[in-house]
Specification:
Blueprint (H helix, E strand, L loop, with lengths): L1 H8 L3 E7 L3 E8 L6 E2 L11 E2 L2 E4 L5 E3 H9 L3 E4 L2 H6 L3 E4 L2 E4 H16 L8 E8 L4 H14 L5 E6 H10 L9 E7 L2 E10 L5 E14 L7 H23 L4 E7 L9 H7 L4 E4 L3 H14 L3 H5 E3 L7 E9 L2 E8 L10 E7 L4 E8 L5 H5 L6 E6 L11 E11 L2 E10 L10 E7 L2
Helix pairs in contact: 4-5, 6-9, 7-8
Length: 443
Amino acid sequence: MQIRNNTEKNNKYMVGFDLGDRDAQISYCSIQQPEAETVPAVAGTKRYNIPTVLCKRKGSNQWLYGREALQAGGTGEGTLVENLFSGALDGKKTVVEGVEYDALTLLTLFVKKCFGLFSVIAPPEKIEILMFTANRSDGRVIEVIKQVVDALGFVGTKVLFQNYEESYYYYLLHQSPEFRLSGSVILDFEETLKVYLLEWNRRTTPVVSFVNVKEYPECRQPLWSEEEFEKRGQMESLDQYVMENVIEVFQNRTIGSVFLVGSCFQEDWADRSLQYICRGRRVFKGNNLYSKGAAFGAYERFCATKEGKEYIFLGREKLKANIGLQVVREEKETYAAILDAGVNWYDIIYEKEFYLESGNSFQLMVTPLTNVFPEREAAGKYPVRHEKIELTGLPERPGGTTRLHLAITMRDADTLHIVTEDLGFGEIYPATGQTWEQDIRLA
């Protein structure tokens, strides 16, 4: 018994938080429990979704959240505040009982209350890595999430972000191997239909995975008619439309698994499309794939599994090339890696100092891992580009007496931003303070 207590005391948790404008969700895994579990929004049930809403009780300072907030708002006991996530992204303000509230403040309060559910599992200080996931992954989303986390004051917790595509990848990575033998599809039908197609390129080492996303904004669940005959016609029309779109995605591809996600699939309208989807494929219906995938992604950051080393994900937000320098070490030229493909572009902050051997320029070596001819991929031969960084106006100095500071960030997933600074060579050749900036397109 004492050993078990000590083990639990040293346990670390990796948490995935799916943050959406409609619902939120928390999943987790740990050193002792690598398989992800989802925290129920209602104890003792499999109701995992936490409605992303707050409600302020009338005449008091009490704020309710989730289902309790919906109930209180519905009965008129308080003022319901919705669209917390999109409101924070847009920098909106909300007036409740004559008081103006910043949407970011309200979103932070909501997230804090959600973690009250997780406190039943473990205290916040036990969270080693917290991975947020959302269906958007632009700079504004990341900025808002960082502000929320800063306001919550997590101590000792590493906070990361990945989009739904990457959460999908990590979810499949942690399923049985047969899920990775063929393509896989998520049909996400919340308000409109969105399709995620995940495929594996086994010609590469490690195996490269990528997700193509297709949206069908015109494919919406209608407001069902109260008249039964007309409702049946609406259902058949939606069923036919979805089936046509699915056939377009599935044709000429080997799809082994399909995941049906979103509230629209809770209705019994998809007779013909489901018949087609289920033909020779494994089909699953659920609503906690993204939060589990976020928890698995956090687990891989903490302790990479065998599968995590054999596969790499190159999604839209990933650096898709290896970046390096040709340097001289012990009088021999050698390749020095700077950035490895597979890193989120918005996480890249690289800084290094080095000495310039001669001239007033140096070259970065760019090795793309996508859009390569299959036969070259199979042989492990990737095309290498040499990108010249010109240091116009750099003072002439003897070889090896110019020290440079190199800083690399990315403006987006396809653009490197290079800043080089002249640091001179001590008192002999003082630094000029001159800097050079250059962008390099990777695609």
